[in-house]
Design goal:
The protein is built from 15 helices and 11 strands. It is an alpha/beta fold. It has 2 domains: 200 residues, P-loop containing nucleotide triphosphate hydrolases (Rossmann fold, 3-Layer(aba) Sandwich), CATH 3.40.50.300; 156 residues, Rossmann fold. Strand 8 and strand 9 form a beta hairpin. The protein is globular.
């Protein structure tokens, strides 16, 4: 039975010392168990035979689940367990920001089609529904008007096509896009969530992620195999066993390569982020998609590496503003990374931020992606 599989997995991780018993997590797990059981062998109405649709063999609609709570309460970990256990032929787990980047890119292509005779959002919703009958979104958050204005019509189409949605968020539905431009046009989407998803607050008292990070150094020097190994171990530990994969983030009609990602954690080298011609929009997309970033191989920067100095400063500023947790392997301490040349004075601000990002106060701040 799927429910017992979830409970057994949770208990096994407690026995192994990977988790501590948490009543709030146990309550959320019970809701996920029920949904997993209801989804066993699920097919949306459009994916079943005409006879099955006529006989209404599967109750419709299946309500999804919206889990919200403070950072570090285990929302993503529980959803990962649920996603692995869900017996659904077509399912997808994706960071919500990445999903919306893809949606914007696909809308652009559909709108560019000269023979498009109907609204593009209903068509896109049908396409997405064919690709995944279960959509699991991590870090559900609405931060810009472009996304806010399309979500209602898009998700209405997804729900109408039988897609079941499970989402985690740091915010309750009523606080999504709070104080955003033209928020009155966004409010019907909040009602749509409540109509199609059960809402659960994961009110655990312990910030498990912070407890895990608190005893972990975040800046390693000098460079070398041992330093890289330490950084990779942190990456794997924060991924909580999720598979490591490469991915692409669509940005303004192109794609930013993310060589290694797991859940909301990414691993980059300095060469991948600062030696390539990346711009502010690329760093913003990365900062919005990942709550934690591991950066390996930061060298001491001579004046001849002006472009890399500028990009590193821009990267750190972007991560800092989004409150991304940063783990770094570098050739020298922050204040010694750039000490000569015309940019050395300006780099002092970057060095100061690198130091601040190691503090417990900074690590406690929620990701703003």
């Amino acid at each position: 039975m799927l429910g017992s599989r979830l409970e057994d997995l949770y208990q096994s991780r407690i026995s192994a010392g990977d988790l501590r018993p948490d009543p709030a997590q146990t309550e959320a797990l019970g809701l996920l168990e029920k949904l997993a059981a209801a989804l066993d062998g699920y097919r949306p109405p459009g994916g079943r035979s005409l006879l099955a649709n006529f006989l209404r063999e599967t109750p419709r609609p299946l309500r999804g689940l919206y889990i919200y709570g403070d950072v570090g309460r285990g929302k993503s970990m529980l959803m990962d367990m649920f996603f692995d256990a869900a017996n659904v032929e077509h399912k997808r787990r994706v960071h919500f920001h990445q999903f919306m980047l893809e949606v914007q890119a696909r809308l652009f292509r559909l709108q560019a089609s000269p023979d498009e005779a109907e609204g593009v959002l209903p068509r896109l919703a049908r396409e997405l529904a064919k690709e995944a009958w279960l959509l699991c979104f991590d870090e559900f958050h609405v931060g810009n008007i472009a996304d806010a204005m399309i979500l209602g019509r898009l998700f209405s189409g997804l729900f109408d096509n039988g897609v079941v949605v499970v989402a985690t968020s740091n915010w309750p539905p009523d606080e999504l896009y709070k104080n955003g431009l033209q928020r009155d046009r966004f409010l019907p989407f909040i009602d749509l969530i409540k109509q199609n998803m059960d809402v659960f607050r994961l009110a655990g008292a312990v910030d498990h992620r912070h407890e895990q990070m608190r005893a972990t150094p975040s800046y390693f020097t000098p460079l070398g195999e041992e330093t890289t190994k330490k950084l990779r171990n942190i990456f794997y530990r924060l991924a909580h066993g999720a598979p490591v994969r490469s991915m692409q983030l669509p940005v303004q009609g192109r794609a930013v390569e993310v060589p290694q990602a797991a859940r909301d954690v990414a691993f980059f080298t300095f060469e991948e982020l600062c030696s390539k011609p990346l711009a502010a929009a690329d760093y913003i997309a990365i900062a919005e998609c990942f709550s934690t970033l591991c950066l390996d191989g930061v060298p001491k920067l001579s004046p001849e590496r002006r472009n890399e100095i500028v990009r590193l400063s821009l990267l750190i500023d972007t991560l800092y503003e989004a409150k991304v947790k940063l783990f770094v392997a570098a050739e020298a301490p922050p204040e010694q990374l750039c000490t000569t040349g015309e940019l050395a004075f300006d780099f002092q601000r970057t060095a100061s931020r690198l130091v601040e990002m190691q503090s417990e106060e900074y690590r406690r701040k929620p990701h703003l992606g």
